[in-house]
Amino acid sequence: MFYNFKIIGKVVIYNYIRRYTTFNEYWKIPWKRKNFGRYSIVQPGLIKKEPSFPQHITVPSYYTTTLPDPSPAEPEIKTSEQINKMRRSCILARQILECVKSYVQVGRTTEELNELVWNLCIENNAYPSPLNYRGFPKSVCTSVNNVACHGIPDDRPLQDGDIINVDVTVYLNSHHGDCSETFLVGDVDSEGCRLVKTTQLCLNNAIANCRPGVEFSTIGFVVEETARQNGFTVVPAFTGHGIGSYFHGPPDIYHCYNDYPGKMASGMTFTIEPVLAQGSQEIVILEDGWTAVTLDNGRTAQFEHTVLITESGVEVLTI
Ligand code: MF3
Ligand code: CO
Ligand code: CO
User: Fold this and answer.
1) Measured in angstroms, how far is the CA atom of residue 150 from the centroid of ligand 1?
2) Which domain holds residue 20?
3) Does pTM top 0.85 for this prediction?
4) In a domain, 40, yes or no
5) Nearest Cα residue to atom 3 of ligand 1
6) 147: closest CA among 296, 298, 293?
7) Fewest CB atoms within 10 A around its CB: which of 135, 184, 217, 220?
């Protein structure tokens, strides 16, 4: 999920044409000029309009309105019935992500990955949650190299050396399941591999610390410590979120150092989804209103799980 006006997250809407001038200005400053490795800087391509969604599958209300229904005001404690529904949607999200993983290869366009997600959702009587969510035009987010988050599938073919995050969320039996991974395409340079590995480690370390009574802010501490130890930064603009019959709700899960109050309790379901960057943590939203790119063109990686807090600890639902 995106937005964070409470913390640092510097978010600027740039006109895509003007972005060049701005980037050139940025790169004139000698100490900001940095070589982050061997990869291509992504430019947004052509987006194909999605067909209308089949009528026999239950869609969330935002499919027609683009605006989600209000989520609860406080973190929700799920009943066992709700938890079972979460389990099913999370398992499906994982299965679809695994299918995409085996489909990722040089030459494949992100549009083709989107079509796979679309078809698999329909086959399983599920709805691809991103579609029309606050106006998002496609069924999955695909974020390549310097795209930090919310990349829109388009006609760009994957290139040897790319890293791509695929973020799959499905709406099944009126509940959302949300997970993402960053995949390596062909031969990725060593810094790219290290960035991806470290990001996955951040997520795993965060999960290892989850249990009833633990502060949510522990997640931010653990993720930022792990990132810094490996020479990477945390992008603060993207947070994890409570999830259920709503796509995004309380609690907000910050992945950077913070002292916001709030403790985990048995029955809560939320996501953890850190984005790590090679260089600057500053991001820019392009004029499509979604694509978040790094200001310094460095690469980012992201991993996401939906978790359930249990009496004895934590259960990863999207495993
Ligand atoms: N799946 C993303 C998340 O982890 C949200 C995507 S919102 C969309 O929160 F509209 F871009 F799909
Ligand atoms: Co999420
Ligand atoms: Co997600």
Assistant:
1) 7
2) 7-29+69-316
3) yes
4) no
5) 1
6) 293
7) 135
